[in-house]
Amino acid sequence: MLFAAALLAFGFQNTGLEEPWALGQTAASTAERHATEIAMSVLADGGTAVDAAVAAHFALAVTYPNAGNLGGGGFLIYRKSNGEAFFLDFREVAPANATQDMYGLAQAKASTQGWLAVGVPGAVPGMAAAHARWGNRPWSSLVTPAAELAARGFRVGERLHKRFARYEKALAQDPLTGALFAPAGKAIPAGFLLKQTQLARTLKSVAADATAMRRGAIIEALVENSRKGGGILTLEDFENYQPVLRPLHTISWHGLEILAPSAPSSGGVFLTQCLHTLERFPLALWGWADPRTIQIIGEATAAAFGIRNRWLGDPAGFDFDSADLIDLEAIRSRAKRLSPKRYTPPQKQISITADESTETTHFSIVDGYGGAVSLTTTLNGNFGAKVMAPGGFLMNNEMDDFAAQPGAPNQFGLVQGRYNAIRPGRRPLSSMSPVIVVRDGQVDAVLGSPGGPRILSSVLQVLLNRYVFGMSPFAAVAAPRMHRQDLPPELRYEEGRLRGGVASKLRQVGQPLKPLRAIGYISAVFRDYSGELQAIADPRFDGLGMVSATGEPKPRAQPDGSKLKSNLD
Ligand code: DON
Prior knowledge:
Oligomer: single chain
Helix content: 25-40%
Number of helices: 18
Bound molecules: 6-diazenyl-5-OXO-L-norleucine
Strand order of the largest sheet: 6-3-2-10-9-1-18
Largest sheet: 7 strands, antiparallel
């Protein structure tokens, strides 16, 4: 009685549930302040990590238009408080009219810019499917904050302005994109109040009914624009799009369980390859900054990229047993051929310039029930295909993630194989790797990154930093990173962050080096040694991580997700 009175006095609704106090800390880390704050308020309201992720996803579509999206797709990993875990793939698919050779060499740009570069987006069907299965807050309450933000406007920050400025020429080429982000060919300045009325209308429709992004006026106008712009999207493409629940790729390593995505992500295979290859070497003894450590990590990642690029793609096309790619005996025997004193050159030589965009976005969330979401979402390149739907949202250029021209590098310098050839309805191979680390049955870390192939190296290094080198959560994210894929052969390091002595040791073994401004952009939540959550935003950029106070009471207990209506079944 007294307890109930106390609840009312604190302003909580009496939901009839027994243990409203039994809920714990919440945490969210995203690349953008509004998105983190919106996610935290959903969590404070008793939402699950999935509810908060849905709200953050829509907020990022407004405030982080270079990567946040309605016109893209991504991967979500959810681990419920009871330990059940899922991988939801809401990545784009090739339109039904796509063909393997639709991008001739003569028009190489067509796979990155313009309507022909666009894959059928999965963002809204994906969020709707996740919410129907695992959410407990009303759908409209998760979309409406983004709709309001789009209508009210937000101030463009310095960094977003720079992104607009860097791409202003390309943005101005599309009338809708140009009018909004680069009117009269000039990027909107920092401090500008960016209102997106058309996007606000679209979000309002989506808040009322998620199928607004499957059929109806918004999609009809989009398809018409695509047709006029030389694209091949059809109404049926949108009608037929399906998010897919796929097997999780679970890696047992160092007494931990790492939950990673399976194909069409390369995350699971890549991390398994690298973590088990590196077990052979005394990294902890050498230390994280030792040239031997750096060289052997580079050798391991280059070899794993070779496997990724040759074998991976949409699993629908596999004509081999993909379990062979993670066979531990084979991995350990290949590891014997690697040495920190050697540089293994790629088999082919090719000259590639891969740019350093960070244009994908990752966020990490832990709810008050102990559940967690790790979600990476993208338009692929910066501002995607740089074309906008009449509904006020940018479209992806995910078609470039296929081996659009087999044997030729894509925008990230990846030269990929026949399992990643374009086929109607298939998903392109991805590097996006949202992961959740479980220790003793409890979520210990949630992390991921943008960066195309550099996502893989970044996630790997943060795991090594935390669990092999014993760094604090912040140090694990802040420490300098490097990246080596099979082609190009250079080991990329962060400018000014590789000591001269180390660089010369690496050169001595024959390893070519090249600087990059920054590698990866981690948004993470960790549990520290006292059991408290820490939300970490990568100091390389200006995201925001927030945690609630320990033991802050929440009004609701988690409903049983299986009783909720599912549109995946
Ligand atoms: O799925 C992929 O691997 C790419 N579309 C990710 C692109 C990306 O991270 C761009 N950011 N730098």
